[in-house]
Amino acid sequence: MVKLAKYAKPFIMPLIVAIALLFVQAMTDLALPDYMSNIVNKGIQQNGIENAVPSAITQSKMNKLTLFMSENDKKEVIDNYTLINKDSSDYEKYVKDYPQLEKESVYVLKDISKSEIDKLNPTIGKAFLTVSGVDKMKSEAKNGKINFNGQEIPSNTDLFALLGKLSEEQRTKVSEQANKKFEELGDSMIVQAAIAPIKDEYKALGVNTDKLQSSYIKRTGVTMLGISLIGAVCTILVGFLGAKIAAGLSRNLRRDVFTKVESFSNTEFDKFSTASLITRTTNDITQIQMVINMSVRMVFYAPIMGVGGILRALQKSHSMSWIIAVAVIALLGLILIVFSIALPKFKAIQKLIDRLNLVTRENLSGMMVIRAFSTQKFEEQRFDKANKDLTGTNLFVNRVMVSMMPIMMLIMNGITLLIVWVGAHQVAQSSMQVGDMMAFMQYAMQIIFSFLMLSMMFILIPRASVAADRVAEVLAVQPVIVDKKDSKHFEKEIQGTIEFKNVSFRYPGAEEDVIKDLNFKALPGQTTAIIGSTGAGKTTLINLVPRFYDVTDGQILIDGIDIREVPQKELRDKIGYVPQKGSLFSGTIESNLKYADENSSEENIRRAAEIAQAIEFISERPEGFETAISQGGTNVSGGQKQRLSIARALVKRPEIYIFDDSFSALDFKTDAALRRALKKNTGSSTVLLVAQRISTIMNAEQIIVLDEGKIVGVGTHKELIKNCATYQEIASSQLSKEELA
Ligand code: M5T
Ligand code: MG
């Protein structure tokens, strides 16, 4: 996984933007429960009155309130209010809001900050509570008498005037008596308790208190809506960025893997199976893409959300923080268990996909053989096994994952229950507000969800890391056949002399050399034929020339330059190669012939087709050169395919021709015609020609007889027939007595 980190580099910028957006999104998500708790606490329970500092207080009320404040508090309160009366310049402005102004002067709150309001809250709140407590005494009068400070006084006494005459000490005593039950509550409870008298005060000012409430709820609601909208926009943008990053990154990965695989020599192909290479470029990279897309959204969001949620929840209630701890521990335990069970299986899954791919590929490409041998049953079983293995493992992993969900839900619901249980008790004891409990619950859910997301990541990331390792493995391969840094170059006009010097070759991992100590020279303008029984090493030998493999020992020289010294492209540009098993690409005949040289002229293509004896069957087709060739060239016969392969090499007009048993599928007449035409047209080129038929090579300037990787005879047909036993053997099996003589 780390090995692929450099692929993230081009996407750093969008990633940073995405993280910033996620941060905003998390902040909006975390802010919402707080607003909800405000709606419950302030909007509903406090009638939309946010705090105990009213926006205006009548002068008469202020006089009563200040009776129960210390000199300092009194000064502070009065300083924060402006007294407005009929003569004030702002009278017109305020009389609309507070109609009571018409009758008496009103203290209007100055524009002060929230922290200052928080500071005034308990002072004014307590004063309101005391004043309403004193008022209550009056309403609780019995027999026209009030119990005031232990004395019976007539109920029509102006208690506040009386109080005004008392010393500050005595007044404090009264207020202490009135506030006793609120003293132990926190500031927020004092505010909540003071709401009723404050609401009365607003009424006295002539303010519509119902409107106050609904406008508070509306205001908060609209704010919440705005915040949600911001969150939604962030979510969409992050989704967009995530998809962009993931798709871009996997595009680059696929491109690099493909380029890498193109540079592979057969040695590397033998190491990875074709099926595995396909799975790696498709399924594995898709896996990575999916996980990147999801993790851009989750990996960064979950921790911000989790930590933010915990902080916010603690802010709402310290006493219930242990519930969060319980939830986190339970979730971590669950994730750990699931993680340890499922992880080892992910590696297995990718391997099983490889296997399934291999079986499918073999089945598709070998369909004819399978049918011919009636082994469908066997193949079905083989496929079935691969399929079942994959299904089984997939099911197992999914079952583990799925079982996690209900347990998660159980934990979540248990936690909710616990919060309601504990919270309800605290609400009953007035040590918590209902809205705070609800917000706490939402924060708890957000914390749990962030853990849920993290756990998803724990499951997805290992899977992606398995995939990433498999892709990195391909990318890390250093092909054995590479261009030298200070490479040599051929002369402009190369001759094309091929020289094998003590060449030995062994397939990677094999125990024995296939080619043993070969020495020969193939000259320009001549045909060098190679003949030998099957498995003698003919294909192996000629495959060394275009460097499909490098020699194990010795060297191959072209015009005196070791072929390992020149760039692969330069070397291969000089060679026209016709493989033993002709292969064509999907397209048309023309596109296949132009494969050798896309700028080749019409005339040249026609010439190549004529030499290759292909023109006849091409012109028989109504579309001629435009005839479609299906995938793998399955809609032409074996012989036609060979002739097109030959024509393709001829289009190139190279200095060196290599024909690997390329005439095997031709009838004798076509074979002879083709060879004649070739002889005429290959001119000064060097021709290496592998054949099984003596008749094909009889006229070659030089024939090399190969047996078990060793040269057992070199010479012309005439020479060999006299002095090479192996050649005689081959010849006598193919030619009649007269022909031999
Ligand atoms: C020569 C072995 C093969 C054989 C010997 C292509 C290839 C061959 N071999 C490998 O181990 N790995 C390979 O990828 O090498 O094989 P050849 O050179 O293909 O023989 P040939 O061209 O002379 O035979 P044929 O049948 O084409 O006339 O032992 O196992
Ligand atoms: Mg061969």
Automatic annotation (TrEMBL):
Q: Which CDD domains match?
A: ABC_6TM_Tm287_like
Q: Which domain of life is it from?
A: Bacteria
Per the record, membrane topology reads: Multi-pass membrane protein
ABC transmembrane type-1 domain sequence ranges: 221-463
Q: Which Pfam families match?
A: ABC_membrane, ABC_tran
Q: Name one GO molecular function term.
A: ATP hydrolysis activity
Recite the UniProt keywords alphabetically: ATP-binding, Cell membrane, Membrane, Nucleotide-binding, Transmembrane, Transmembrane helix, Transport
Q: Which GO terms describe its cellular component?
A: plasma membrane
Compartments, as annotated in UniProt: Cell membrane
Keyword Transferase listed? The answer is no
**SUPFAM superfamilies, per this entry?**
ABC transporter transmembrane region, P-loop containing nucleoside triphosphate hydrolases
Q: Which protein, by its recorded name, is this?
A: ABC transporter
